[in-house]
Amino acid sequence: MTDDLKQKIQTKCREMGIPLFGIADVCRWEDPLLNRDMPEAFYPRSIWPETQSVIVIGLPVHLPALETSPSVWYREEYRTINSLLDQYTYRLAEFLNGQGYPSVSVPRDGYGHVSVLVDKPVSFFSHRHAAYLAGLGNFGVNNMLLTPQYGPRVRFGSILTAAPLPGDQVMEGQLCTRCMQCVEQCPVQALSEDDYPDGLTEKATCAGYSQTLEKHYLAPCGVCIKVCPVGEDRAHYHREDTGIYRNRAGAEGCHRAWEHVRRYGAR
Ligand code: SF4
Ligand code: SF4
Fold this sequence. Notes:
With 267 residues, the protein is α+β, with helices and mostly antiparallel strands.
């Protein structure tokens, strides 16, 4: 019965063009080894007690737009993805409601303005942790969820549902190569070299930088996901060499293009 429902959700996701999809049993949040840095108030059942499963979907950030960051191009792409995630998760929750299972989508960005994050740098629910527990990837030094398909260049949205669905396997092994490019290229040194969760992003510092970019209509930053070598999308876009972001020699055309984009649409 719930296997059938899972297949129906998978079919729906495919029809909607959603490339990444996973399910986490709600009990996984209660394993203290998985989530020792997450207070219980952030668990799905603390937020909505009827939750039995969390469905997570992921949409990729297209690398050519991200490479221009900070830029209006990446900013608009980011907003488009967030909007699609909110629409898709809402529609999937409605699909499940129609099947008789009470369900609700969680907003992609749970804050009113980037300035709020400087004082209170977390949202009421973590889509990254949900994606991890739904088997979509594992954490890198940059504190982002790395996926085989897109590395950290993917954004997630979640649906809380009362349907008891079969969960997907949590991904074993590590995708992060510990190359430290994210640490070295962060413009405000907000990352440490320790693995997650020992090395946590200095969230207030990162949010402070985003706030500065926001004043110029250039947020978000995105550097630590741009430079990460993990992800099949790098080969798809012929960008296996991540050294091009630091070295102009041999990548003159790319640098000229990025500079052109950055000159327009922002202050
Ligand atoms: S988003 Fe930017 S400022 Fe924040 S940790 Fe990543 S590289 Fe650093
Ligand atoms: S840039 Fe390197 S160290 Fe950072 S998350 Fe990616 S693989 Fe890991």
